[in-house]
Structure formats: structure tokens, C-alpha cells
Amino acid sequence: MFEPAIIVHGGAGTHPSEWKKREPYLAGVKDATLQGHAKLARGGSALDAVEAAVIALENNPLFNTGHGSVLNLKGNVEMDAIVIDGRTLSSGAVCGVRGCPNPVRVARLVMEKTNHCLLTGEGAQDFMESQGILPVPDSQLIVPGMRLAWEKAVLTDKASSLPAASQRTASDLPPGCDTVGAVAMDAHGNVAAATSTGGTTAKLPGRVGDSPIIGAGAYADSSVGAISTTGDGESIMKVCLARRTAELLETGVPAQESAARALRFMHEKVGGEAGVIVLAKDGNRCHVARHFISTTMPWVAVNNGCITWGIDQGQEESASLE
Amino acid sequence: MLCDNAFEGRVWGGAVIKIITMFRPTIIVHGGARQFTPDTRDLVQEGVKAAARQGYAELTKGGSAMDAVVAAVSAMEDNTVFNAGHGSRLNLKGQVEADAIVIDGRNLGSGAVCGLQGCSNPVQLARLVMEKTNHCLLTADGAREFMESQGIAAVPSSELVTERARIELEQHVKFSSAVENLVAPRSAPPPSSSCDTVGAVAMDANGNLAAATSTGGITAKLPGRVGDSPIIGSGAYADNTVGAVSTTGCGESIMKVCLARRVGELLEKGKTAQEAAEHALEFMSGRVGGAAGVIVLSQYGNAGACEVGHHFITENMAWAAIDEGQLRWGVDPGQEMNEII
């Protein structure tokens, strides 16, 4: 028997410095984590847990995923998401999908109902409908804050498709403008990862970032551990950040150091900011860790009867789970 | 590592010595890993040899590794015998949806497209994604709009669809509906259905590496299905300090293990190009099943030459390589023909 654990992130970026404005992000990630943990406590799989956690964040309009996604250059919502089952390395993902309230759910259906790992565009939407999920209009997914950010980006030529992504500073991004993700281990010792995003404000229509890519936005292997990433998507893709973190775990490097070294490599090689959450297997337990080189990254973990969380660099608060 | 010219500075005991390093331009291409039928075998062999020659011609006239891989892959996209560009396999709706990628080993710059319709040369569009946008991957309608914004008109489906591809789709649909009555719906596709792709990796006269991969995907794929080909770390990988890789075969298996990146990891651990190709495929086959093929160039060595490796665990893989004035090629396991060029 394994002691289940979960860690969830709500995006690497620059969150508001006032506690009043940043507290809802942490609260949202905490709620998602507890929802995921509840699945584990009831004997659910790691896959059930990460899916539940990410769905909670997709439904939360504060986060750049599902409801609350950023807008592309045309003012539309296009989403990417992935799930990976560490037991078999099976995966399902969607990219450039529109009208989808819960992309991570569709990603899981891709894994379970097709022979494929990734569906895009209209094909992804047709598949979604074939599974009985009705598309929703963009108006149901767009929140005022993200529309404002889009208007600002388009009107002031700060569209992410124009200047070099690596030259963007964190202050160019709307607050909390990023991807969400979760990794977990269940009572059978299996791990899973899930990541979901609306992408970047004013991205070129059709732009796909790291999130739906095995080895970039997520990675999971029950013999090693599970990873979800967030941040500058192009930088993450170029170095296969999630796979790189796993490579370090495979050589015995501890979870925290694996995340830190992988991020340092990325930053030195191709620039950009990002964050990583890691769950590393260790006998019948696991270690959960996180590292980020952005200003902030809200994260919450449940492991060993304890809930821990943070948003700033070096911050780690904890409480007993009861 | 940036190698803009053939000079390299090294520090020996405090002194800086400039060494003129001559790099040996090299290219290896593949035209898919699958069981080739007798009627296509010769055409495929001639096709990879011609593509390798075209890529090598770029290198010898001073072109970059990127120019070479794009030229080689474009040649195979234009050749209807290959599953890329003209001659691509069709999705369940009878459409061509293309995936392609280029990666520049100098700075890990990359451009890719997926689920793209109406494009004759997806690899060239992938290069434009890398050079003209801040993004690495564009999909579907967005990719098509970008293509048109670059002055490339979409071509009608009829121009990309071949009779062979159409017949293969019909056969697959007939086979699947027959099989569905007997076994569970998710049984393996018939042997005539191809999981192959084309690709190339090259090193230029400055020691820079590049990789490119392009595909129409698999016959009767679900519309919108994206395989390994446009994915950094799966369909391709390139890093001047490591090597360059292009993969082909069962896309889902390749994706699950990040096959191209795995070859890169093995190169970083000191394996030769050939060893890295073999071990990575062995891992994939053992862990997730499926079959594939890989072409690899290592980083250059002391003599300015890189190692060339190729391996496949499918019945066949069409490949051709050129360096040092020699063209080598093969289709069967262990086969290597050569001629002086």
C-alpha cells in the first residue's frame, strides 16, 4: 500500500502583491488540491485525482484555463490540455480546441476512447461532441479581466506573437496569466499528471504551447514520478522540460533539485521563466516538490497527512490536514 | 553553442589558441519505417537517395544544416511515394492533414505545424513558423491562415490526394468494419496501413546540426489526430552540443516515451549514435510496444566528423546517408549499399 499524495499549481507568473488580490488564487489551488485528494482518499486513481483537481481550476474563472482562459489575437479562446497515466505511459491530449468547458476531461477521453494521444482543432471538437459534451460559446468562457488584457495587448502592440517571448517581462502579462496542473500518486503507487491552459494572451490563432505535449507540459511514469510545468511555453518545449526533470529523477537526483536543475538548464539555454511541480517515487512513499524561476507560482500539496502551500519564492506554509 | 564560422577558441594553460576546424558535412534521411510492398520498394529507395543528394547539394554549396534538411524533406514531400505532402495518407474523412517540424541545433529554435490542410510543403511552413513568429507550433486553421499570410496559397485537396492513398483508405475502412464484427473495436490496423513519416538530419560545414520531420499521419486516423512528427523530443530533436534525431513509425508509441529526446539523452551519456538509436528503440518497444525507426547524427568529434546512426525495429526503413563523397543506403535490416558520388 502507498500513501497517496498530490501537488497542484495554478500558474507561474507574477501574481498581485496585495494579499487581498492574491489570496483567491491560493484559495482556488487549495480547493482544487483538496478535491483531488478527496478522490485519492476514497480509493480513486491518480488519474481521477489530477483530473478532478484540474477540472476545479478550469471551472474557476481566475485561472487561465477553461472558464477564464486568455484570448488569442482574434479574441477567441483556444485551449490545450493533457493527461498522462504513469502506469502505462498512456496519454490523451487536445490542442487548439474551441468551445470546450473542460479540456482536461476531453483529453482523458482521447486517451480512453481512441487509439491516439493528441487531437487538434475541429477534429478534437467533433470528438468531444461524439462523447456527448456540448460545445459552449466563447462568451461562457471569457471573463472581463482576460478580455481587458487582450484589448491592452492588441492595442498597445504587446501581443505575445510580436515581440520575442523571451524578452517579455513578467509585468507584460496579465495577473495569473498561466497554465494549471496537477500530479498525484494513488494507493496503488501509480502516478499521473495533468496540465491545462488557454495559452498566452493575443497568441497567433492556432498557437500551441507546451501544455498538451508529452515531455514538455507534463510527464508521468509510475517507476519514476510525475511532473507538470507552467510558464514560457516555447522555452519549455525547446528543452522538453518535463522529460528533462524526469531524466534527473531517474538518475537519483531528489525531486526539488531535479526541478531546480531542469529550470536552470532551460533558462541558461533558451531563456524564459517557468515553474515545475514534481512527485518523485521513493519506495512506498513519494516526495513532492516545486520550483519556479518566475516571481510567483501558487501551489498546494497534500502528503503525509500535511497540507503545504505557497506562492512566493521560498514560501512554504503548512498545516495538519484535519 | 553557436558555430558561425570554422574557428574555435580553446584555452590551454591560460593561452587562447584559435583552431581551424573543418567539419565534414553530413546528411542522413529516412523515408518511413514500415513493411514496404514490392511495388513501392524500388521507388522508395530511389526517393531517399534523391532526397539525400538534394540535401547534400545544399551543404556542398555552403548552405546550412537547416537548408539541407528542409531541401531533403521537401523533395520527399514532392515525391508521391512518400507519406508527406503530395502522397500523404488520408484521415477517416479522406482529407490530408499534415504535421511537420524543423529544429535548429544552434539555439534549439523550432517551428512546427500540425493538423494542417492544403499545404504542399509542410516542412517549409514549419521553417517559417520558426523564422517569422515567436511560436514553436501552429495548428489547423491558425496554421493555414499563417501560411496564407506568408503568401502561400492553399492547394486543393485533390492535388495532394493520390490514388494509392485513396485505395489504402478504402481498404482500411473495409477491413475495420469486417474486423469490428469479430473483435473489440480497438484492434490493430491492417498491415497495409502505414505509420510512416519522412525526415532528415544534417551537419553543415560549420558544425551546426538540424533536424526535420514531415508526415501525413496514419491512414484513417481520426480527423485532428496528431502524432509524434511535429513534437520536439518525439518526432525530432537537435542540439549542437548533443546531436540530431528524426524518428518514424508508430506515432503514439514514439510520443509516450519521447523517443527523439531519449536518443539525445543516451548521446549525452556517451553512447555512440548507433548505440543510442538501438537502446532507445529497445526501451520504447519494451515499455509501450509499437515499432519505429530512428536516424541519428552525434555532435562532431575531434576530426570534425559526426557519427551517423540508423536503426529500426519495423520490417523495413528506407534510409540514405551521404558524407565524405559516399552515398550509403538501405531498406532491409542490416542492409547497406554504397556508391561514390
TrEMBL record, chain A:
Binding residue positions for substrate: 207-210, 230-233
One GO MF term attached to the UniProt entry: asparaginase activity
Keyword line: Autocatalytic cleavage, Hydrolase, Protease
Reaction(s) catalysed (UniProt annotation): L-asparagine + H2O = L-aspartate + NH4(+); Cleavage of a beta-linked Asp residue from the N-terminus of a polypeptide
CDD domains: ASRGL1_like (cd04702)
Gene Ontology CC annotations of this record: cytoplasm
Membrane-traversing stretches: none
InterPro entries noted in UniProt: ASRGL1_meta (IPR033844), Ntn_hydrolases_N (IPR029055), Peptidase_T2 (IPR000246)
Residue positions of the active site: 179 (nucleophile)
Residue(s) at site: Cleavage: 178-179
Keyword tRNA processing: no
Protein's GO biological process: L-asparagine catabolic process via L-aspartate; proteolysis
Any matching Pfam family: Asparaginase_2
KW Protease (keyword) present: yes
Entry's family note: Belongs to the Ntn-hydrolase family.
Protein name (database record): Asparaginase
TrEMBL record, chain B:
Gene Ontology biological process terms, A to Z: L-asparagine catabolic process via L-aspartate; proteolysis
Residues making up the signal peptide according to the UniProt record: none
Protein's recorded name: Asparaginase
Keywords from the UniProt entry: Autocatalytic cleavage, Hydrolase, Protease
Gene Ontology cellular component list: cytoplasm
Active site: 197 (nucleophile)
Catalytic activity, as annotated: Cleavage of a beta-linked Asp residue from the N-terminus of a polypeptide; L-asparagine + H2O = L-aspartate + NH4(+)
GO MF annotations, alphabetized: asparaginase activity; beta-aspartyl-peptidase activity
PANTHER family reported in the protein's UniProt record: ISOASPARTYL PEPTIDASE_L-ASPARAGINASE (PTHR10188:SF41), L-ASPARAGINASE (PTHR10188)
One Pfam family recorded for the sequence: Asparaginase_2
Database matches in Gene3D superfamilies: (Glycosyl)asparaginase
Binding-site residues, substrate: 225-228, 248-251
Family: Belongs to the Ntn-hydrolase family.
Residues the UniProt record annotates as site (Cleavage): 196-197
Origin superkingdom: Eukaryota
